[in-house]
Write a structure and sequence with these properties.
159 residues; alpha/beta; three-stranded antiparallel beta sheet; globular
């Protein structure tokens, strides 16, 4: 759990522990998050968009994770959290490689369902010239019969 607000960090950390997640690590900064991600394996990361009060700080952490050379780090599911729910914030998080996006305030039930869904249904990752992250398409569209909309198939890798 990465959030510069200690109350939010503690609340979400306590909820995760109540859900039965054993080892919950709470950090307050982009640097601490980067250090923890290099040193340990995580099944999921919850990351505040406005980390440190800067819109780009949370996205910067996300970009660093997706750009990491270590597959174990670069493919960790990352759920972006934010009270800033403008469509452009969601698009920027998605384009940086967020696995999902939740708008604060969140309920325990919402957090639980999102964590369970993220962990139980991992998405394939796409590697393309300008993007690396989870496939944006959540499910195949059986009605689609045309040529590939991207022009060429990106490399898909297991998370």
């Amino acid at each position: 759990m990465v959030d510069d607000n200690r109350h939010m960090r503690r609340l979400i950390g306590d909820l995760l522990r109540a859900f039965g997640l054993g080892d919950v690590v709470e950090v307050a900064s982009a640097d601490a998050a980067a250090r923890e991600l290099r040193e340990r394996h995580f099944d999921i990361v919850l990351l505040d968009l406005l980390l440190g009060g800067s819109f780009d700080d949370g996205l910067g952490v996300l970009r660093r994770v997706r750009g990491a050379g270590d597959h174990r780090v670069s493919c960790v599911p990352i759920v972006m959290l934010s009270g800033y729910a403008e469509p452009m914030a969601v698009v920027r998080a998605r384009d940086a490689g967020a696995s999902d996006f939740m708008v604060k305030p969140i309920s325990a039930a919402q957090l639980y369902s999102r964590v369970v869904a993220t962990l139980s249904h991992p998405r394939l990752f796409v590697r393309a010239p300008s993007f690396f992250g989870p496939d944006r398409r959540r499910r195949p569209d059986p009605r689609y019969r045309g040529t590939d909309r991207r022009g060429s198939l990106p490399q898909m890798i297991e998370a």
